[in-house]
TrEMBL record:
The keyword ATP-binding does not apply. Pfam families: adh_short (PF00106). One of its GO terms (molecular function) is oxidoreductase activity. This is Ketoacyl reductase. CDD domains: SDR_c. It comes from Longicatena caecimuris. The keyword Oxidoreductase applies. Belongs to the short-chain dehydrogenases/reductases (SDR) family.
Length: 250
């Protein structure tokens, strides 16, 4: 098997590459930081192709697909993404738009392009990395929360389309809570609880992806939180979300 992972230079993406390598899956690792990718390549016991690329640009996503269109890609993992903290009217619009391009546009393009091939072959796994943020409105991180909601809903809709046509192609969406990665530094926030390690989340995620689970929520606390969001009124959810985000920046 062969897997393509975006955002593979750190965090969950890097650790999912390690989990897949232990299962003898060859890898195509995509990220902007070449040195990090080369370090990871050296430690993995499988064939690894390193691609230094910024997936926030549409032409780069299309070029990435064209480069590997004739290779038997079995797994696509859209993991690249980042967040930012601040009131919507104060955050930098260029960073907002780059976030939309990375968290939404890249996922949309790569999922669409590779899905067509997977459907034609009637096999393959797609894993889109969202967040528990996808379940809530996100005051003080409005753009990030909105992007992850898009990823969740897109993935769920595709899952239903595949089910209706009796396809053997699988799509999963990962919605973790706090994970100990570089995310909090990039987003300029501090998580209120330690959360799981990226190694733990990666192991759970790959196992459940291969089991063809649609919604992957690591941890009982986060599963309970997800259930709660389905029954609470939006005004209360917005208040809770604001309180949580406000405390993150203290």
């Amino acid at each position: 098997m062969k897997a393509l992972i975006t955002g593979a230079s750190s965090g969950i993406g890097r650790d999912m590459a390690r989990v897949l390598a232990k299962a003898k899956v060859d890898l195509i690792l995509v990220a902007r930081r070449k040195e990090r990718l080369m370090e990871l390549k050296e430690e993995l016991p499988v064939h690894v192709t390193v691609v230094v690329l910024d997936v926030s640009k549409r032409e780069n996503c299309e070029a990435l697909y064209q480069r590997f269109v004739h290779e038997p890609i079995d797994i696509l993992i859209n993991n690249a993404g980042f967040g930012d903290y601040g009131e919507f009217h104060e955050t930098d619009i260029d960073k907002d738009l780059q976030m939309v391009q990375t968290n939404i546009q890249a996922v949309h393009i790569l999922t669409k392009l590779f899905l067509k091939d997977f459907i034609r072959r009637d096999k393959g796994y797609i894993l889109n990395v969202a967040s528990s943020a996808a379940f809530l409105p996100g005051p003080l991180m409005a753009t990030y929360y909105a992007t992850k909601s898009y990823v969740l809903r897109l993935s769920m809709a595709i899952w239903k389309e595949l089910q209706k046509k009796g396809s053997h192609v699988s799509i999963s969406v990962l919605c973790p809570g706090p994970v100990r990665t570089e995310f909090d530094k990039v987003a300029n926030v501090k998580f209120l609880m330690d959360g799981k390690t990226s190694e733990e989340v990666a192991a759970i995620t790959i196992r459940r992806m291969l089991e063809k689970k649609l919604l992957i929520i690591p941890g009982m606390l986060m599963k309970a939180s997800y259930i709660a969001t389905r029954f609470l009124p939006n005004r209360l959810l917005m208040s809770c979300s604001y309180h949580i985000q406000h405390r993150k920046n203290k």
